[in-house]
Amino acid sequence: MFGVDVGGTFTDVVAVRDGKISVTKVPSSRSNPPAPVVEGAKRLGVAGSTVFNHASTMGLNAVIERRLPKIAYLTTDGFRDVLDRGNVHRPLDAQTDPAWRRSFGDANRPLVPRYLRRGVVERVTADGNVLIELDEDSARHQLEVLGKCGVEGIAICTINSYVNPAHEIRLRELVHEVLGGDMVVSISSETSPLAKEYTRASTTVIDVFMKLIFTDYSAHIDRELRELGFDGELNFADCAATLLPWQEALNRPFRILFAGPAAGTISSVRLGAAIGENNLLCADVGGT
């Protein structure tokens, strides 16, 4: 069995074979992220192994450092600033102050710049009824603008779509009609079909980022491991440290974001059980 933790500075690979543990450490690579994983597997001899488990802070580091693909955010007209407003109530003395910012926020470093956040004419009410039909001409115009901006993916989150997703589904079809079938798209009604606009919107945005960051990366690792003689299951950990086949994990890739910290936490629990310690304080100090 193999396990790998891909960090921002080093990639640690561990092999367990016949009760013997082997480890190696490879410098991580921003220009070629799969390479250290493959190199570590090659050093420890991955051929014939049945399981290769993968956890990473790569996506989380990209978000923290804002080393992100260029994506757009499509929403109901008038709601494009939900990503900035968040879901924290303002103090009373800041209710009418447009310059107020949370001391711990990242309003000056938005995940999606405001010019790439576009509103389309449509409105679904809280009970799922259509108050304003989707204006497809308006949507096409916004998509043409975004295409000229060179976006690599689009997150779609319209108001109350968790009750009635029809407009989001149609918007996704329009994205592929206008920008091509290979444009990466996530819609909130499938990604996070829950109330609370900011949570649903930010989750959908992260989902698009993770698709762009991990899709080719995962396929590359799988292909390279097969060439090294690995014929087992490549699994990715998610935010609950649940191990899933990599293709299944990429069905909801926003869950990969916290895979590294989650896997470290669960591993610490297992370590505590193995040494008979119920109370542990564990820390992972990485380079990022």
Structure description:
This protein has 288 residues and is of the alpha/beta class. It has 2 domains: 2-63 and 214-275, 2-Layer Sandwich (Nucleotidyltransferase, domain 5); 68-92 and 102-209, no CATH class. Helix content is 37%, strand content 20%. It is built from 9 helices and 12 strands. The strands form 3 sheets. A 6-stranded mixed β-sheet has the order 3-2-1-4-11-12, sandwiched between helices. A hairpin with a 5-residue loop joins strand 11 (233-237) and strand 12. The longest helix has 31 residues, at 197-227. 38% of the residues are buried. The model has no long low-confidence stretch (mean pLDDT 92). Residues 200-288 form the Hydantoinase A/oxoprolinase domain. Residues 2-178 form the Hydantoinase/oxoprolinase N-terminal domain.
Record keyword descriptors for this entry:
288 residues, alpha/beta, Nucleotidyltransferase, domain 5, 2 domains, six-stranded mixed β-sheet, four-stranded parallel β-sheet, 9 helices, 12 strands, 37% helix
